[in-house]
Amino acid sequence: MNWIETLRTAWDAVRSHRLRSILTMLGIVIGIASVILTVGLGQGAQDKVKDQISALGSNLLIVSPGSSTSSSGVRGGFGSASTLTLQDADAIGDATAVPDVAAVAPVTSSNTEVDTTSTNWTTSLVGATTAWPDVRKRTVSSGRFFTAKEVESGAKVVVLGPDTASELFSGPVSPVGQTVTVGGTQLTVIGVLASTGSSSSGSSEDDTAITPISTAKALTGSTSSSVSTIYVEARSDAALSPAYQEINALLLNLHGVTADSADFSISSQDSLVETANATNKTLTVLLGGIAAISLLVGGIGVMNIMLVSVTERIREIGLRKALGATPRVIRRQFLVEASLLGFAGGVVGILIAAAGAQFLPGLIDQPVSLSVAATLAALGTALALGIGFGVYPASRAARLTPIDALRSE
Amino acid sequence: MSREIVVALSGVRKTYRSGSIEFEALRGVDMSIAEGEYVAVVGPSGSGKSTLMNILGCLDVPTDGSYHLGGEDVSTMTEADLAVVRNRRIGFVFQQFNLLPSLPAWRNVELPLVYAGVHRSERRDRAVEALTRVGLGDRTDNRPGELSGGQQQRVAVARALVTEPDIILADEPTGNLDSASTEAVLGLLDELHESGRTIVLITHEHDVAARANRNLTIRDGLITADEPVMAS
């Protein structure tokens, strides 16, 4: 008896118990659909983060003040001492020392209350230079950004993020030309930034107020030349790695420290993506694990029904044996029947997952990206579950002696 | 008349063990059946009739003694080998018909051919031919539920015939039938006998046994009488 005959016999059996077959498949269907959707959601979240971060500029390096070690050997936490200065930024901007750098944007950053005559709003006040829009890939939607001259003179001007602008100036009046007060100093709004267009991680990007770095220092009463972060744009994607090396060497030299006691850290978008992905991966593995357990339960359901089926069809098995079916053929028949249930459940599960991937993003505002590899793996798993959990019922059917099987009522 | 011996049993014993209790169902049966014979095995229930039927049908193996079927010693074969022997040499007709309710008549008839590895296109032709032979050529696509008891048993006879087996083994084939259907099925067996088939009929009804040309009487696990039936 060849495989096609076995498959036909199994198909007849599955079809003649339609309701039962459907119910048996249901466990596999739910398991496969949830595994595929969970993995798809995880993948979607990773893609989303990647997109958001690369939208900020993929050639970006971020130099942050690292932990500084005091003389007593106590390591201060992040931001406890700003070890980066404007001089560092200027040095990085020096084309001869660091040829792979295209632009440098040092920023200071602090949380400040911004007042208008009618309302107030606490936002992140960023002191920046004219290179900032280029390096951070931001544009101004109305008005203009400040000029180098304004940076030099410490002009009392501010560019608002779109969210900040709408919080402070509701109504039809354009914020440009209005004045806001920060720490008793009046600043003129000269522009509003375009939105980064992303909602989840973009909120802080859109809720901000940018002033010339000199103005920001005056507002916060800081006299030092320290900065919070230095954003560096490399010449190209390929220049990212050499730029990293050059900046690292330059700053180690300038600060007179060794790599082990470095008082700064340089991260790229890639490392940010990696961090975000690690979090997503943990969640995906967790949820995928739960889904896999439901798949296992589905497999046990297949075994349960196959055992019932063997008991119920004991006369049929006896007859088939009397007519010449060897134990091997009987075992194969039940095994194929179980795998058919698993496989069909897998196919239906994939269809449901594909449908879910269509309407779920609209429902929960999360993208779902289905991968062919994950889908094929799920199908393989469904088939393997059918075979794996079919082994025991099939060998029970094969072991029945024909007389006992024929005699049973 | 030197016809070939198809079935040869010598000293066949069958002991069933249930816990510490042993029960000897067959206590040394010697018998032989030649090609083309129509033999009825008669005996009351509990006589060992069913056990003999199981052994003749290779559904069970003797505890002791030898059984040659078509020249092959089948008394020591494994279940897998016995399955092949059953498929090639024996056609079964059971009291309860034992048709698969989900399959149409012709697919029930082709089942032994499926296990014999016969090609699909040939199977259907042979199944329809066998059904035509038992007078059901117009019912090939009916499921068992759509057929009368007598018709179902004729489908079962067609299934027994389809592989051209060495012997047809009928175990109380008329036990579940009314008298009209009984007559039809027995008439069919008569016809098969006339066309040269070897038939072994197991029954406890003497008027059914009278249709055969040789009666073996079994009692308490032994053959007690072996006599030809006088043509009436």
Automatic annotation (TrEMBL), chain A:
UniProt entry tagged with the keyword rRNA-binding: no
Similarity-based family: Belongs to the ABC-4 integral membrane protein family.
Keyword tags: Cell membrane, Membrane, Transmembrane, Transmembrane helix
Lineage of producing organism: Bacteria, Bacillati, Actinomycetota, Actinomycetes, Propionibacteriales
InterPro entries: ABC3_permease_C, MacB_PCD, Macrolide_Exporter_MacB
PANTHER family: ABC TRANSPORTER PERMEASE YTRF, MEMBRANE COMPONENT OF TRANSPORTER-RELATED
Transmembrane stretches, start-end: 21-42, 285-310, 338-360, 372-392
Main location: membrane
Name of the protein described by the UniProt record: ABC transporter permease
Compartments where found: Cell membrane
Positions of the ABC3 transporter permease C-terminal domain: 290-402
Domain MacB-like periplasmic core: 21-249
Topological category with respect to the lipid bilayer: Multi-pass membrane protein
Superkingdom per UniProt: Bacteria
UniProtKB/TrEMBL annotation, chain B:
Secretion signal span: none
Record flagged with keyword ATP-binding: yes
Keywords, sorted A to Z: ATP-binding, Nucleotide-binding, Transport
PROSITE patterns: ABC_TRANSPORTER_1, ABC_TRANSPORTER_2
Record GO terms (molecular function): ATP binding
ABC transporter domain residues: 7-231
Superkingdom: Bacteria
Residues spanning the membrane: none
CDD domains tied to this protein: ABC_MJ0796_LolCDE_FtsE
Name recorded for this polypeptide: ABC transporter ATP-binding protein
Classification lineage: Bacteria, Bacillati, Actinomycetota, Actinomycetes, Propionibacteriales
